[in-house]
What does this fold into?
Amino acid sequence: MFTPSPVPKKPQKKARKGHSFHLKRATGQLRTVDGPLGSKPITAMIRVMLNDFKPYEVDFFSNVKLPQGEMAALTMEAPARFFQKGKVMRCEEAIPSSKIVTDTAFKYRLTLKFQFESPEQESTVKAFVMAIRNEHLKVDAAA
It folds into this structure.
């Protein structure tokens, strides 16, 4: 008598929890500080994804290449006023085949590691990062 072998069950896909991932961007300015005596500061326009803010550093795109190790000050007006000095830890050419059309070409990807002058300043930056996460990057659980 022939007995068919049981058909193996296909593994079920895990159900998505329905969380969506939001990306919000902001613009700002980066200006070099503490350059050689008599040198003009370099000013760059930046575009930052708010998701890239961390309590100790931020990654962003820039229209100007800055040397690694350069001290710079980052300023943003929105979504909230932000000013912080830091050191350029990385500056690489962004993907040149980008299809983003904009008036300003943000050709470089930089990492700025914050340089804190006091524990209070460090706490202020941490509070800013948490406020961005809670107020501007809320994940919609029902999405």
Observations:
- The CA atoms of residues 31 and 129 lie 21 Å apart.
